[in-house]
């Protein structure tokens, strides 16, 4: 059984790239033949790790069409990639992971004839993985056979969680303030004209809590800036609120984000759209309470606030800070399952499929 995962491999650091990195590590440890094709556009060496190759999507498709039949697992959805999947399905089994709920918006942004072609191709994909029940409902509005849409939360735990170096700026914040709030994004971006990760909300939150007398600081992981103009706007707002010593962007990637989550008092996920959220699952796995927007269903034990409602975010954050011990006990009693076994089970199931219209027997070595 040969597996080809196509997506983004760190760097850049983000939920999807970390997911692919950890998935590959588990496949390697279990002796499953696999390769990752990194189709990111960032400047980076051709090979970042054994079995990881950086190629354009066009070159990946050409390469795979000349190789033995395999399971191709796509992690980056776009209308253009639907047509690449159509080519790959001529020879390979194809699985598509939809890591967030924005796929219908992507399809709807194109002319009707392109939408029809894309939906037709999506209905030929062997299996579609989504990370939440909400995403499953959305996918089943366009996928005729709803049983081909599988909910598999994308959490894969890190192999280890190293301690941060004592000299790291995060530690100085931890030692200098009573409360440490943590959050992060792979880069600043927008969804429907609004700050996707809710960084603006977090800045206002820290300003409000500081005025209310809370000795609080926020460390926000941001390995890539993304929208540089917006980054400047946010930093000017930080200056205007006088919270330069309380709101900190960590722009150099740390080896493992969970190293921050485990020393934080509270992890906040303030997105206005989301998938399963690796950040939320990682924080719960290390026993740190999570406050998240209600834009998608969240795991049990997560405290919610109304998406894009700053006042509700402040209220719920104050509640969390005032009840940290109880929230930590609640999180400590919950369990966070890895998706590795479910994904491997899916690979095995798909490897045994035969495509009726071609009569090809799928036998993967």
Structure, explained:
This protein is α/β, with parallel strands linked by helices. Helix content is 38%, strand content 18%. The protein is built from 14 helices and 17 strands. The strands form 4 sheets. It has a 7-stranded parallel sheet. The protein is globular, with a radius of gyration of 21 Å. Residues 354-365 have low confidence and may be disordered.
Quick rundown:
By secondary structure, the protein is of the alpha/beta class. 38% of the residues lie in helices and 18% in strands. A seven-stranded parallel β-sheet has the order 3-2-1-4-5-6-7. A six-stranded parallel β-sheet has the order 12-11-8-13-14-15, with helices on both faces. A two-stranded antiparallel sheet has the order 9-10.
Strand numbers in spatial order across the main sheet: 3-2-1-4-5-6-7
The tally of helices reads 14
Q: How far apart, in Å, are the first and last alpha carbons? A: 4 Å
Rounded average pLDDT? 91
Rounded radius of gyration (Å): 21 Å
User: Unreliable segments (pLDDT under 50, ≥5 consecutive)?
Assistant: 354-365
Helix fraction? 25-40%
Largest sheet: 7 strands, parallel
Using DSSP, what is the number of strands?
17
Structural class: alpha/beta
What amount of the residues lies in strands?
15-25%
Shape: globular
């Amino acid at each position: 059984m040969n597996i080809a995962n196509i997506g983004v491999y760190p760097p850049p650091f983000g939920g999807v790239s970390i997911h692919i990195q950890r998935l590959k590590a588990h496949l390697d440890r279990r002796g499953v033949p696999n390769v990752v094709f990194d189709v990111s556009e960032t400047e980076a060496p051709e090979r970042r790790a054994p079995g990881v190759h950086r190629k354009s999507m066009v070159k990946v498709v050409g390469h795979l069409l000349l190789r033995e039949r395999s399971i191709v697992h796509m992690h980056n959805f776009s209308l253009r990639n639907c047509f690449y999947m159509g080519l790959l399905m001529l020879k390979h089994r194809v699985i598509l992971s939809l890591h967030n709920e924005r796929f219908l918006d992507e399809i709807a942004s194109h002319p009707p004839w392109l939408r029809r072609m894309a939906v037709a191709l999506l209905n030929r994909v062997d299996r579609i993985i989504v990370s939440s029940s909400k995403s499953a409902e959305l996918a089943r509005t366009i996928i005729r056979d709803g049983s081909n849409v599988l909910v598999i939360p994308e959490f894969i735990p890190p192999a280890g969680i190293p301690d941060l170096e004592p000299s790291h700026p995060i530690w100085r914040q931890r030692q200098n303030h009573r409360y440490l709030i943590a959050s992060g994004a792979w880069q600043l971006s927008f969804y429907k004209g609004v700050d996707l990760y809710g960084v603006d909300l977090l800045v206002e939150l820290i300003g409000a809590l500081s005025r209310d007398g809370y000795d609080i600081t926020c460390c926000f992981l941001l390995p890539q800036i993304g929208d540089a103009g917006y980054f400047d706007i946010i930093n000017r707002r930080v200056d205007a609120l006088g919270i330069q010593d309380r709101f900190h962007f960590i722009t150099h990637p740390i080896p493992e984000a969970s190293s921050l989550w485990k020393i934080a008092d509270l992890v906040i996920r303030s997105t206005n759209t989301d998938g399963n959220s690796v950040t939320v699952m990682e924080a719960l796995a290390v026993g740190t309470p999570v406050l998240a927007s209600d834009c998608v269903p969240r795991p049990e034990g997560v405290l919610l606030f109304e998406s894009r409602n700053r006042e509700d975010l402040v209220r719920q954050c104050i509640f969390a800070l005032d009840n940290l011990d109880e929230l930590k006990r609640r999180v400590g009693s919950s369990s966070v399952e890895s998706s590795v076994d479910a994904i491997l089970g899916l690979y095995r199931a798909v490897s045994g499929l035969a495509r009726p219209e071609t009569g090809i027997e799928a036998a993967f070595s």
